[in-house]
Amino acid sequence: MTAQRQQLIELIRPVITAAGYDLDELSVTAAGRRSLIRVSVDGDHGIDLDAVATISRTISDVLDDDSGTGASFAGPYVLEVSSPGVDRPLTQPKHWRRAIGRLVTIGVEGRQLTGRVLSVDDSTVVLDIAGTERSLPMAGLGPGRVQVEFSRPGEAPSDAGEADGADPNDNADLEDSVDLDDSADVDDGMNLDDDDDGEFDEFANEELEHQRNHTKEA
Fold first, then answer.
1. Which residues are CB-neighbours of 55 under 8 A, at least 6 positions away?
2. Same domain for 133 and 204?
3. Nearest to 61 by CA among 106, 100, 14, 4
4. Per residue in 62-96, pLDDT tens?
5. Residue 49: which domain range?
6. Could you tell me which of 9, 73, 92, 201 has the fewest CB atoms within 10 Å of its CB?
7. What is the count of structural domains for the chain?
8. By the 8 A CB rule, do 66 and 52 touch?
9. What confidence tens digit (pLDDT) does each residue in 10-53 have?
10. Contact by Cβ (8 Å): 202, 196
């Protein structure tokens, strides 16, 4: 771990923990004269867009701190805060705990097994594999991968005419989670004129990807 990454973790983790979430991953890469700081945040019940935006602003404040305490990030940067995608490997107990109810594929003793996560503790994962319940020691498991499902057991079947189990209310739920009145805080460089559909679509897409870029000039 580089000294720069360690410094960022020490600055950022308390902010995320105080908000009730976990720092899932942090990376720092060079982007021209700036540093690209990518922060992945997660929680036991997931994280919504409003929380991502709030945490992103708070992290920016910490990185920009000019109080003279030395608790800031030196140099220009671009900050990107998001939640983990489904392709994030399951390697820790908290990852497995958050995957309860999901269908996963995992390597066990050189074999690939697919099953549904039933329960998890600090040392064991219990899977339903083809109707058989199996307890697997976590120490012997390779990284698990969550499988994408259009519907899960116990969910009501989709109405005729809906595409592959898609919920027609999903878009409305996602749109409701974006507070357009706070758009200036989420991305200071975005102008949301009512008659400018192009810029509105760009903002909505960026929000729905759970990402926010913040640029600090040198």
1. 15, 16, 19, 21, 41, 81
2. no
3. 14
4. 998 866 555 667 788 899 999 888 888 898 888 99
5. 3-85+191-216
6. 201
7. 2
8. no
9. 999 999 999 999 999 999 998 888 989 999 999 888 889 999 99
10. no
